[in-house]
Amino acid sequence: RWDISAKPEGEVARARRGDQNLGHDEGFLAERFGLTVHTETKDMPVYALAIGKNGDRLEASPEGSKGPMISIGRGTMKVAKANMAMVAQQLSSQLGRIVIDETGLKGDFDFKLEFAPEQNGAMKPVEAPEKPEIAPDSDRPSLFTAVQEQLGLRLESKRGPVQILVIDKVEKATEN
Fold it and tell me: Which of 109, 154, 156, 167 qualifies as a FRET site for 59, CA 20 to 30 Å off?
């Protein structure tokens, strides 16, 4: 394990002022750790977000509304002026598996999704049930059922292309 304390200098510092994530500073990591990486696309399990058999139940965001904004609480997802790619990304974090937007829906939407809290913040992949049902110990439906009933969309388990980061080389850090 490593604790890294770094402060970018010059133009980089001005451009990144307030940026909490220095993990994308490949130059620093390459210099100190000899890190080399590349990306690959692999066929992996994903969920496809698609329009349900009876059509979507989404309403477009009103003209001039503020956003985009997505907030996630215990068993809720509130969306304001967000597109489907953003929604898919948030669903990915909830389900622990990449969600690909296959809805074909354009524009921004507002909605509130309510689902069983135990689905919130899942860190491992959650399997789509054959027959979605209400989650145990909850009066709210599973996330899969909530997406179907409340949004008119469906999450379908399949395989698809996923971009992954591959570490080619990393070494013990150099001295200060």
Answer: 156
Does residue 97 carry a pLDDT above 60?
Answer: yes
143, exposed or middle or buried, with CB in 10 Å at 0-12, 13-18, 19+?
Answer: buried
Predicted confidence at residue 83, as pLDDT, reads 95
The token duo for 115 is 């689902």
| Residues near 86 by beta carbon (within 8 Å), at least 6 away in sequence | 68, 70, 79
How far is Cα 61 from Cα 111, in angstroms, rounded to an integer?
9
Pairing of strands 59-60, 36-51: unpaired
Q: What pLDDT is attached to residue 17?
A: 38
Angle at 54 between CA 51 and CA 57, to 5 degrees: 65
Beta partners for 40?
A: 164
**In 10 A of CB 91, how many CB atoms?**
21
Tokens of 167: 């570490």
Residue 159 above 50 pLDDT? Answer: yes
The pTM assigned to this predicted structure is: 0.68
